[in-house]
Amino acid sequence: QVQVVESGGGLVQAGGSLTLSCVASGSILSINAMGWYRQAPGKQREMVATLNNDGMIKYADSVKGRFTISNDKSKNRVYLQMNSLKPDDTAVYYCAANLERLCWGPRHYWGQGTQVTVSS
């Protein structure tokens, strides 16, 4: 089995910072990409930042310049450094990993989410 687990969420004042971490574990052959998505109440889940195996990074316009995604591929880990947080950043943040297992093609695996709350 594969597990994707996020950590680092919490309550922070506007203008503050948080760092999220996500690790994928289990019988993983390779990871094609990892990234972060978020879902706020009443809104659809949206992509925040993604990083593929070739190092290509994509950010949502709303977080560009404030958030930084990075990874440690040897540990199947991805980070999201969030600076200058705004109340609009309040959401459940989900880690996603597109990976391959032995005898399986690419699959998309999701973590359970971590709550980020930014107070005014």
End-to-end gap:
41 Å
The Rg value, from CA coordinates, equals 14 Å
Count every helix, treating DSSP H or I runs of 4 or more residues as helices: 0
Strand segment count? 11
Strand content: over 45%
Structural class by secondary-structure content:
mainly beta
Quaternary state of the chains: single chain
Average pLDDT rating: 96
Order of helices and strands: EEEEEEEEEEE
How much helix, percentage-wise, in residues?
under 10%
**Can you tell me the overall shape?**
elongated
**Poorly predicted tracts of residues:** none
Describe the biggest sheet? Answer: 7 strands, mixed
Give the topology, please.
Layout: E1 2-7, E2 10-13, E3 18-26, E4 30-39, E5 46-52, E6 57-59, E7 67-72, E8 77-82, E9 91-100, E10 107-110, E11 114-119
Parallel strand pairs: 2-11
Antiparallel strand pairs: 1-3, 3-8, 4-5, 4-9, 5-6, 7-8, 9-10, 9-11
Can you tell me about this structure?
The chain is 0% helix and 59% strand. With 120 residues, the chain is mainly β. A hairpin with a 6-residue loop joins strand 9 and strand 10. It has strands at 2-7, 10-13, 18-26, 30-39, 46-52, 57-59, 67-72, 77-82, 91-100, 107-110, 114-119. Strands 2, 4, 5, 6, 9, 10 and 11 form a seven-stranded mixed sheet that branches. It has no helices and eleven strands.
